[in-house]
Amino acid sequence: MPRSRDITRQRDLHEARPLWAGSPRLALRTRQRPSRANYDVVIVGAGISGALMAYALADGRRAILVVDRRPPVQGSTLASTAMIQHEIDLPLSRLSDMIGAPKARRAWQRSARSVESLSEIVADLGLSCGFARKQTLFLAGKAYGRRALQEEAEARRAAGIAADYLDAATLAERFSIARTGAILSNVSAAANPAQLAAGILRAAMTRGVELVSPLEITDLRSTADAAFLATAEGWIVSARHAVFCSGYEFLKAVADENHAIVSTWALATPPGTTLPDWLKTCIVWEGANPYLYLRRTRDGRLIVGGEDEGSAEAYASTKKLRRKAKTIHRKAESLLGLALPEPDHVWAAPFGTTRTGLPLIGRVPGLKNVFAVMGFGGNGITFSQIAAEIVSSAIAGHADADADLFAFPGRRT
Fold first, then answer.
1. Contact 241, 222 (CB under 8 A)
2. Which among 167, 201, 231, 290 is most buried, taking Cβ atoms within 10 Å?
3. Residue 52 clears pLDDT 90, i.e. is over it
4. Is residue 109 part of a domain?
5. How confident is the model at residue 4 (pLDDT cuts 50, 70, 90)?
6. Residue 368 CB neighbour total at 10 angstroms
7. Is residue 49 a contact partner of residue 194, using CB atoms and an 8 Å limit?
8. Are residues 325 and 234 in the same domain?
9. Are 171 and 269 members of one domain?
10. CB 187 within 8 A of CB 175
11. Mean pLDDT over all residues of the chain?
């Protein structure tokens, strides 16, 4: 019987207090312990991934339990800058070289559809989370220059994904940015990620989903018929299916060379920062490695992130936090051509990546009744929605047409 001890690799998920930590409407009514010993589905993780998973699975008939070793929405979701992009970290043209054009197109098309699905969920539930549709401005940089962006725009249009290439003169005229080119697209969004996750969890709970927190899962066993999860308190909970949505505290049993943990840094300026008007409708990132990314909030803050490092521990350094924040602040000023106030929030976090920029979603090899989702890169919320769709379909006994794109090594669906 497959077994995994010390089931998740525990990490402090952010070094300093992120912007969203003080948001209203984050409180959720939780239980101190599970109400029963057996469930249809146990979801480990009460962030945005777990929330969307619970909402997708909740049908009023299944017994669903969501657990987290922290209070809900207090883990990696708080560290998100919540740029809900349809654009995957690896451009479509480059991804096509790696996995073939047909698969790359499907991945990008699915990502775009997931933003639309998220928009519908927010509208249907009437969530107050600052959700707003945005354009995306992808700027030429050291990794992807003018010619690469022209090729990328053509690849997107061939895949049925709208993309307008802007030359240097047009970019300077419309955005006052001095780069050799850019791609302007429409299928993205932004939100308060903590309020988004809390609102979706709240909706899932109205459909009968049970939320227990804090509750730490310390061990897992899988049989042909069920998964058995042990808690730090010594309880055993069984389920027909277990789904690990534990963010960057990934399941050790599925760690492999295609998945790595890296560090990133972010800051937010005070409300009412003087910013260009076009930032009200655009989010920005650049074709560089590491790349800078930024957006404006409704109350006039500028959120900027970047300076990623291929280290699972670098985010925890206080010295690096200060140094990286200064670098990010300086780069943002240079890009926008204006002086920015000092940030009032600075934070750092680890996140999972894969070689292709595509997440790992699906059944865990060797653990029949266990699913996991990881490796979301810079597309955490977008990929969380895809994961909810794929896993909920699998649990319902239906094959998702794109499951093969995201399957763990050793599995095709």
1. no
2. 201
3. yes
4. no
5. very low
6. 15
7. no
8. no
9. yes
10. no
11. 92
The tokens for 28 are: 């959720």
Q: How many domains, in total, are found in the chain?
A: 2
| One domain for residues 13 and 49 | yes
- Long-range pairs of 152-156 with CB within 8 A, sequence gap ≥ 24: 152/91, 152/92, 152/93, 152/183, 153/183, 154/93, 155/91, 155/92, 155/93, 155/96, 155/101, 156/92, 156/108, 156/183, 156/185
Q: Is 41 helix (H, G, I), strand (E, B) or coil?
A: strand
pLDDT tens figures, 100-154: 999 999 999 999 999 999 999 999 999 999 999 999 999 999 999 999 999 999 9
CATH code for the domain of 15: 3.50.50.60
The DSSP 8-state label assigned to residue 27 in this structure reads -
Residue 90 is assigned to a structural domain of this protein? no
Question: What are the DSSP E strand ranges found in 112-226?
Answer: 132-139, 164-167, 181-190, 210-212, 217-222
Residue range 351-380: mean pLDDT, rounded: 90
Tokens encoding 45: 């993780």
Host domain of residue 279:
134-187+259-354
The continuous run of DSSP H or E covering 102 comes out as helix 101-125
Q: Are residues 14 and 156 in the same domain?
A: no
143 and 216 inside one domain: no
Same domain, 242 and 387: yes
Residue 318 token pair? 């206080």
116 domain-assigned: no
302 and 338 inside one domain: yes
> Would you say residue 33 has pLDDT above 90?
yes
Sorted by sequence, the CB contacts under 8 Å of residue 254 that are 6+ apart come out as: 360, 364, 365, 372, 374, 408
Q: In the prediction, which pLDDT does 106 show? A: 98
Report yes or no on 224 lying in a domain: yes
pLDDT score, position 142: 95
75 and 11 belong to one structural domain: yes
What pTM was estimated for this model as a whole?
A: 0.93
> Pick from 354, 375, 398: which residue ends a domain?
354
What CATH number is attached to the domain comprising 281?
3.30.9.10
Local confidence band at 257 (pLDDT 50, 70, 90 cut-offs): low
Judge contact between 294 and 284, C-beta under 8 A. Answer: yes
